[in-house]
Structures are given as structure tokens and as C-alpha cells.
Amino acid sequence: MAPKTSPDRLIYMPLGGAGEIGMNAYIYGYGPKDRERLILVDMGVAFPDMDSSPGVDLILPDISWLVDRLDRLDAIFITHGHEDHIGALPHLWPLLKKPVYARPFTAALGRGKMEEAGLSRDAIRVVGPMTPIEVGPFSVQYVPVSHSIPESAALCIDTPAGRIIHSGDFKLDPNPVVGEPWDDKVFEALAKERPIKALMCDSTNVFSKSPGRSESSIGGNLSELIKNASGMMVATTFASNVARLKTLAEAGKAAGRSVCFLGRAMRKMITAGEESGILQRFPKSVTVEEAVDIPRGNLMLIVTGSQGERRAASAQLARGKYLGMELREGDTFLFSSRTIPGNERDIGRVVNQLSEKGVEIVDESGGLYHVSGHANRPDLEHVHRLLLPDMVIPMHGEHRHLREHAKIATDAGIQSVVATNGIMIDLTGDVPGVCGYFQMGRVYLDGTALVGAMDGVIRDRIRMALNGHVTVTMIVDEDGSALGEPWADMMGLPPTGKGGRDFVETLEGDLAEFVGSAGRKILADDDKLEEALKRVVRQVAMEEIGKKPEVTIVISRLSAE
Amino acid sequence: MAPKTSPDRLIYMPLGGAGEIGMNAYIYGYGPKDRERLILVDMGVAFPDMDSSPGVDLILPDISWLVDRLDRLDAIFITHGHEDHIGALPHLWPLLKKPVYARPFTAALGRGKMEEAGLSRDAIRVVGPMTPIEVGPFSVQYVPVSHSIPESAALCIDTPAGRIIHSGDFKLDPNPVVGEPWDDKVFEALAKERPIKALMCDSTNVFSKSPGRSESSIGGNLSELIKNASGMMVATTFASNVARLKTLAEAGKAAGRSVCFLGRAMRKMITAGEESGILQRFPKSVTVEEAVDIPRGNLMLIVTGSQGERRAASAQLARGKYLGMELREGDTFLFSSRTIPGNERDIGRVVNQLSEKGVEIVDESGGLYHVSGHANRPDLEHVHRLLLPDMVIPMHGEHRHLREHAKIATDAGIQSVVATNGIMIDLTGDVPGVCGYFQMGRVYLDGTALVGAMDGVIRDRIRMALNGHVTVTMIVDEDGSALGEPWADMMGLPPTGKGGRDFVETLEGDLAEFVGSAGRKILADDDKLEEALKRVVRQVAMEEIGKKPEVTIVISRLSAE
């Protein structure tokens, strides 16, 4: 172990995933202060919503801190193939261009993403479990854990200052249906071999008080449900929950039904699994073309869209026909998934549309048809005891999760600290200490452009959504006087104001009146004229329709040529 | 009872509240077909959200069907004072101008609303319980029910074709803290006096399988929690849940704390209660000015904002200081409320901000600190049995609730039908029959304007939020050729396109190129020119930033004067 007098230090800083669920990206560093060699663990995305990020395609972590220190970054490690851990790779890797390590299934998904983005597959290096990778002062091993996607892993990160376990996403599942089971012995051995300095640990389910249940515990319930269903059986879950896809498919088979996967994300995941050889014992499925000819009572669809996403298979089936399939009275639709907070309305829409068709709707029914892929509170406590780390640094959670998780650790006599995105922790000594704070933003993938969350672009979109938009154009001629009257065009505003008056007409009347009485000084000054016209628009709008719209003023000046 | 050969019929049609939770408005009619005399029960609002109604202030039922038949409308009855039953009154009453009936507390709230809107208080007539009001062919009695606001009532509507019970919102609470208890005997007597032809019944909690619990059952839990809290105690609930305000205030008093109400809506509700004499035995509270000087351990705040509303007291306290009050480590914040689907993210924001302050957060804890104001499934079954109506028509619910409620009724051998907004039901015979369908919209209160949900105004705002907005202006001179080059202004779009190019510059370059090569025929035709310029904008934007913005084209033609 490095002596305490060493000028080298071991640091940790989340760029994403600490203070939110999603967008995971964590930095570790070792070396002299501000010259530490760095590694990055995970490059995940978060998903946009209409409230705070309308029109945005994906939310990415802000890696500008890392980009400013690119010469110090040695490698990127991806723990598993879920979007909140790997999704940012094709969008941010071009800014980093460092080797990426992953296990075969994760690598297959990552390479697919790189290829789609026109990037090189070879950036991703395939690694085996429990095989140390040496990068700079770090030696990193992938330690298999159970989760809901194959080949999930924790990382065992050895540094001169001590051994770190970075849990990744995990649960304690002795029989996880896909991927390796959780194995206490492996972690015990790691802790015995070298004391654990710090455990960076998944906090998602810290508020779930009973021990987590195995994926294998719901198969029987599902078979039972499917056997008792009369018409077509449809089940939805996350495409990336490969374990559930298998559990559902096996339950369908057990109930004597042919299984058909619907939805692009689902087919992609299964293809990656089959190509990487990880899903060899996956139940055989039929294509949708074959499915159309199978009697409803003998068919089970497994479809995307468990969160009510408008373009996914679930929503399309709820609205009407989709790829020749159509739901009707007597069919059963199962949500084998949890509702992610914020998606209630979208899911509700799908449920009500299905209800209108007379479809029986079954939700996860308090755990009968769904289990989480994350460790619950007693499981976290078990892992703390198993590893007996000097410190627990909670990650993968909102502030309330991190705080609760830290409380569990300190209650058990383990050092802990709440470190949200941008808080740098010095792990070198016996006590984790905050040693820096960097303001972290978020980056939006908007179409094909990357936009900073604080750049004002999305703020303007939100304002137009709330307030509508008015364009005013006017022409000023060669001698500095108004040519004709200003025009107003509006978008997203009521056409009629007070007393049934046409809003645009009223507005143009008042603008014309203003321009008619405005002095040459104002007409000569673009800034002043723009400000004055905006003021007129806002005032008239407030009077007529009770709103203050966003305004674009276009002043065209004819030059004396 | 009217003989079946009578040409008169008894009809029912929801305008709002059937197919959604909120915006209640139900029509009853009796008389010759298409000449029925009409009454309206409730005029509620629903609340907007960013996904489907950004910038909208309130969602109101579409009463155009009624406005077209105004000569047939005799009266409006409000069952109770919750916003989803009375909120539309000041906005829609001017379109109807008919007498409004309500019990005193409801009338006090309604009169306050009318006054604020500059309308006459006298439109609202105060009625007592169990006192028949004769309007046209109807005789209507207010029958007290327990709910979470004082003087909630069902309506007993007598018509020549039979007696109807319109449940309003209700629960079976023998001790509802405010308002009258539920009384089986009253309803039994009504059914004995005259058989119940139809029960129009609240469906909100049809999926809750255990019997509802009394408001009085949580007082002890609350006192216990508050006694054990060390710092300041803060509790939030709906301001309109007057029962809970009282339960919370009494629990605070019992724990030896002074109670202070924070938030405009809360003070308003309490004032209405005190003025109408309904809250005479309400615990004494202190003002916020007094509260500032009370030691934290002796103080309890009851605040608005249980749904995370940004401007409410909860959110303000979570962000920082509010009216001199500030939360800190060791304080306790209780959500004595349920999360309305769709509000999870807003509530999560408040919770995480409180967590950052070190405040202990307590949620409703599975019913320990909250009970619903609506009847659960067994309670509904009890009421069906009590009244033994010929038919049950479910109301106050989304489609799935109505369908489930109808199933309960038919399973018990009672006729039922799912009637969503705009479906007219003929109740005259033994079986409820659909006798009409009118496409119902929703109306948005947007600022001070009323906008139809399908008018395209809000659709345009949503599009601008998703796609951003570009304004292109160009001037065509007297002889029909372009004067200078087109200008582009953008809002809510990334400034930089592919390869770091300035997006607006690229766009203006391509627009200039197009205009330069465009024939005089296109330049002469506003529609064609506009369409062509739009096409250029969309194409360039797609190439440069991967999005298709909304576009406003302004063509100014200089006339040869």
C-alpha cells in the first residue's frame, strides 16, 4: 500500500449517475495531485422528457472536464450493456478516442453502436472475467455479477493506494436466468486477497426494505397466467432486460404458445445475444410473418414499449393494427416491468386504449410478474458486510438514494460520503474527503448536434412551448423612415383576443401606431427599435390574450445603392 | 313511472369526467327526443401538463353541445367544492348564464371564484340537504356524503321516468373529520321510498381491493410521527383536502406544536370554511410572522405543493428561504398525500432538494399518513347492494376504471354500460342504451383566451418545443426580383451544424443560392415561394443539425407607389 506520505493520491469523481438515475460515468485517478492518471467507468445516457428537454434525443454526461485532461486518460471500462451505462459511447467516444474495454456481449452491443455511427468497431477490446487489465497505475478485473442482462460485471480496481470495488449494477441472484449468478465466494476471496479500500455501490433500490427476489421466482407465475389466458397473450418489458425476455419466452413455451418478438430494440438485443453466443439456449421464436397465421390462443407476443413510448410496439398495438397483428376483446396484455417515474401518463394512455379494445390488462401485480435487477437494502447491507470496505461511496442514485445508502454505511461503522456529479473525493487516507468540485452540466444530443443543457437552446424551446411565438418584421427605407407598416406572424397563440378581436390585426394596428409616432432616433437604432417593438408585442398580447409570447423582431434596412 | 309508450325519454351524457379523472360535467335530460329539458351536474377543470398542453392554464370541458341547446338548460348543480367539480364555473358560466345550486361551503368557494372573475355572486343559490329543488321535469335533492371536503353531496334526481342517484365523489367514512359521515340509512330510505332507476357512480378507486379507511384512522399515526420529530415539522397535502388540513392541524396540536398554514390556496380554503361557519371547531393557527419567532421544535407548518408544483410553498421551501422560513438538517417533511400520476418528477425534484438540505423525508408510508377520499371496490359493491339500482353507470374515471366498475355491476346482475364523454345514454327502458354520440373536445384556458384542444394552437407550441423555430424574411421589390438576400433567424436550435459551421450562415447561404436561381414565376407567387423556402430550410436543417424545424416565412413585397 502506498505510504501516507506519498504525494500520490487516489481520486474518484462521478460525471454522471450520482444525483440522478441514468447517465452513468465515473472517473478514477491515481498519481500526483492534478497529474493523476485517469480511467473512465461507463458512458451512459439518460432519457429526455417534455418538461425539461423537449425534442432532445438523448441526454449525455458532460465530459468536458475529461476532454480538458485527455492526455491523462488511459482507458474506458464498460460494466454492462444497458443504455444508461453504454449509450453515450458512439456520441462521446470521438471526443476521447481511448481504448474501451468490455466483456463479449457488452462489446457486441457497443460495436453495433460504433458501427451505426460510422466509427471503428476496433475501439472496443473484448476482455474475459477475472483477468487483470493493466492501464497506467490501475489493474482492473471484471468480476461477474447477476443483473438483468448477460455478462454484467463489477470492477475490481487495484491501485497503489488500495483496492476498489466498483459494483456496477447488480443484484444478489443465485439464478438470474441469463448471465452469471451472484457469488459471495468470489467477493469474499477478493476482500481476503487484499483489503477493500472503497466500495462504490449501486444505490437504486436502497429504499426497498425486503431482500431482492430472483428472476427465476416469477417464471411459474408467468406460466400460470399465460396458461389461463384465452386469446392472444402479449407481454411487454424493456428490450434490454434480456433475462426477462428469456423468462417470458420460456413461460410462453411452457404454456404451449409460439413466441414472437416485436419491436426493433428487442430484435437487436436478441441478435447481439445470439451472435455473441450468449443466448444459445434461448427459446426459438417465430417471425411476425409466421405469427399472423398462428391461432391467437397459441401465440404469445413479447413487445417493446413497457413505458408507453409512442412509437414502440405496445403503443402501436394499443392504437390499432401493427405489422398485421391486432388486439381484440379477450386478449391479455401484461406489463412485466416497473413504471419509471414520469412515464405514468404515457403508460396510462396505452392502458386506456387497450381497455377500449376490451383487452384484459395485467400489471406487475406487486411483484408477481416482475422483479427488479438491483440489490435491495438488505442485499446492500450484506455486500457491505461481505467486503468490509474502509469506505462506501454510494453511486447510481438520486440524492435521496445516495444519502440513505451513506446512512446505512455509517450506521454500520463504515466511512461514507455523498458524492454527486462533479464532487471529487480523495480516497487516499482513511476517510473519504471532498477535494474538489467541478460544475457538471449535461449535454443534449439534439438531432445530430450536441447542445449544452445550459446553452439556452432548450430553454428557448420550452419558452416557445409555454408562451407561443410572434415574429414582427418591418422595413426601414434608405432615408431611415418606416416603409409600410410592421407585419406580425404568430405561432402557437390564440387567434382571437378580447371581445372576439383578431389578435394579429390588433397587434399590427398597435405596432403601426407605435412606428408612426416613433422618432427617427429610435427607428435608426436597431437595438432600441427591437426592444420597443418587443415591448409593444408583449403589452398588446398581455391585454388581448393574457400571455407574454416569445418574440423575434426582423428589421430590414434598405440601403441606398 | 312513465309508461314505455311515452314519447318522453330520460337521457344522460357526460361532457367531461368519463374517460379521464378530472373535468367533471354531466348532463341529464328529460322530455321528447331532442327536446329534453336539461340540467348540468358539476363544472370541473383538469390540469395541464407539458406533454400535451404546454403553457395552458386550465383544461375545461367542451360545453358547445350545451351552448347549442341553451334554451333547454334549466340549472346547474355543483356537488362539492373540489376544482375538478367547480373549477370551470367562472370560465364557462358566462356562456350558460343559468342558476347554479350548491350547499353553503361550496357556494362560498364558488362565489369567491365568480367575484374574482368579475361575475355576479348571485348566480349561485344556496341549498340545504334533503330539500327538493324543482327545475323543469326534475326534482333534485342534495344528499350528504362523506368525502375530504365539507358538504360533499350526492344528488337524488327524481324524474317522471324514475329516480337517479348521482354519487358525486364519496367514500364510506363514519368519521370523516369534516363534513357529514356516510349514512347507509339515508340511502336505504331513498331507495325504499322510490326504486332507484340508475346509479351514476364514482369509479376512481375501483382497483383498490380492500375497504376504504376513515380519515380519523390516521390521526394517531400523525401525532406519533410529529411527537418523535426533533426539528421543525412540515406537512404537505392538497389545500382542498380540508379534512386533512384539520387532521394534520389537530395532530400537530396534540404533539404540542403551534400550527401555521403556508400557501395561498390553503389560506383561501380555510377562509371560506371559517366564513361559511363550517370550520368553527378548526384548530387555531398562527401567522407566518408569528411562526418565525417560535422555536423549530414547537412549530408545525402545513403547506401547499404536495404535487411538487414549482410555485407552491413546498417547492419554495425546498429551494431555499420562503417568507422567512428555512428548512435545515434535522427537520422533517411529510407528504400526507398521494402522488398523482404524472407528477412523479416534480415531486422527486422537491424530495431531492430537501435531501440535499439534510431534511428527513416521510412519504405516506403505505397509508400510514394518508387515506383516499374515494370509495374502494368493496365500498362500491356495498353501495350497489344498498341501492339495488336497475342500472349502474360508472363515471369519474379513465376508461379502464369505468370498464372495471361496469364489470362489477354486471357480475352482480345489474345492468351497466361504459359511457365516456359524448356518449348519450337513454335510461328510459330497463336497459341503458347508447342513443347518440357527440365528438367532445376539451377547451384550454390559455392566458385569458379559450382555445379548442384541436384548434392547432397548442399543437404548434408542442412542435416548436420539439423542433425549434426558424423565421425567414425576404423582400421582393417592385419589379418582382429579390431585394438583397433572405435572412434567417432561429429560436431553440443549435447554433452550430456539421463540421462546426454556423447553422444560420449555412442556411442563409443556401437560401440566397436558391433565390438567386429561382425563376420569376416562383418569386411572383407567395404560396410557391413560401413552400420552396420552407423546403430549403428543412433540407439544410436536416443536413446540418438533423432536425426539421417549424418555419415562418415572411415575404415583404415592395409596391410601386
How does this model look, in words?
- The structure is a homodimer of 561-residue chains.
- The first copy, chain A, is an alpha/beta fold and 561 residues long.
- Chain A folds into three domains: 8-210 and 372-452, Ribonuclease Z/Hydroxyacylglutathione hydrolase-like (Metallo-beta-lactamase, Chain A, 4-Layer Sandwich); 215-364, Rossmann fold (3-Layer(aba) Sandwich); 468-557, Ubiquitin-like (UB roll).
- In chain A, the strands form five sheets. Chain A has an eight-stranded mixed beta sheet with strand order 7-6-5-3-2-1-20-21.
- In chain A, helix 4 (104-116) crosses helix 8 and helix 6 (219-228) crosses helix 7 (242-254).
- The radius of gyration of chain A is 29 Å and the shape is globular.
- The model of chain A has no long low-confidence stretch (mean pLDDT 95).
List the main descriptive attributes of the protein structure presented here.
homodimer, 561 residues, alpha/beta, Metallo-beta-lactamase, Chain A, Rossmann fold, Ubiquitin-like (UB roll), 3 domains, 8-stranded mixed beta sheet, 7-stranded mixed beta sheet, 17 helices, 25% strand, globular
